[in-house]
Amino acid sequence: MHLAVAGNIGSGKTTLTTLLAKHYKYTPHYESVDDNPYLNDFYKDMQRWSFNLQVYFLNSRFEQLISLKEKGKPMIQDRTIYEDAHIFAPNLSAMGLMTHRDFENYLHLFELMETFVTPPDLLIYLRASVPKLVSQIQKRGRDYEEAIRLDYLNRLNERYEAWISTYSKGGLLIIDVDDIDFNENKEDLGKIIESIDAKLHGLFEHTK
């Protein structure tokens, strides 16, 4: 079983991944943030470092998925390989922060990698407004994230909504997180787990 948590910067992916991994006893796989050699440089100069950063994330997530395939253990993943290719890289290209040549090169690399991976059984999308994202980002206080612009978050949100509206690679659960706090409120977390269980039950029935 492979669960994945998707969502914009600050939507709560890592927190929910941790909570769900503990509940289901699945192995969590997190986004490479603290040991990412490009992240600080990227937020200071997006145009210079966009391609390097996106290739790093792509490679990191590809390694996670290959590891999952080899071990065959249930896992929950913090962000998917699809978000890099359908949201972050195209957004950087559209904003003029990644050259057309680099973007085409990136897409060819993604398309090759995609032939070797299997989509998650259930994708959990955390939908959040920009004010909610800003609040969460400020709360965690990462220095390099102070440079994130509101228009950047808004553009990403628009791309997330467009991607989710056509997503058909596996099961999908959309959670609106603006008015809930699954980290502090056990009832909110319980409702999310109930929704996931219902989706997973449907997946199990479908595979019989």
What is the fold's blueprint, element by element?
Elements: E1 2-7, H1 13-24, E2 27-29, H2 39-44, H3 46-71, E3 75-78, H4 81-94, H5 100-114, E4 122-127, H6 130-140, H7 150-166, E5 171-176, H8 186-207
Parallel strand pairs: 1-3, 1-4, 2-3, 4-5
What features would you describe in this structure?
- The protein has 208 residues and is an alpha/beta fold.
- The chain has one domain: P-loop containing nucleotide triphosphate hydrolases (Rossmann fold, 3-Layer(aba) Sandwich), CATH 3.40.50.300.
- Helix content is 59%, strand content 12%.
- The chain contains eight helices and five strands.
- Strands 2-3-1-4-5 form a five-stranded parallel beta sheet, with helices on both faces.
- The longest helix has 26 residues, at 46-71.
- It is globular and about 45 Å long.
- The chain starts with a strand and ends with a helix.
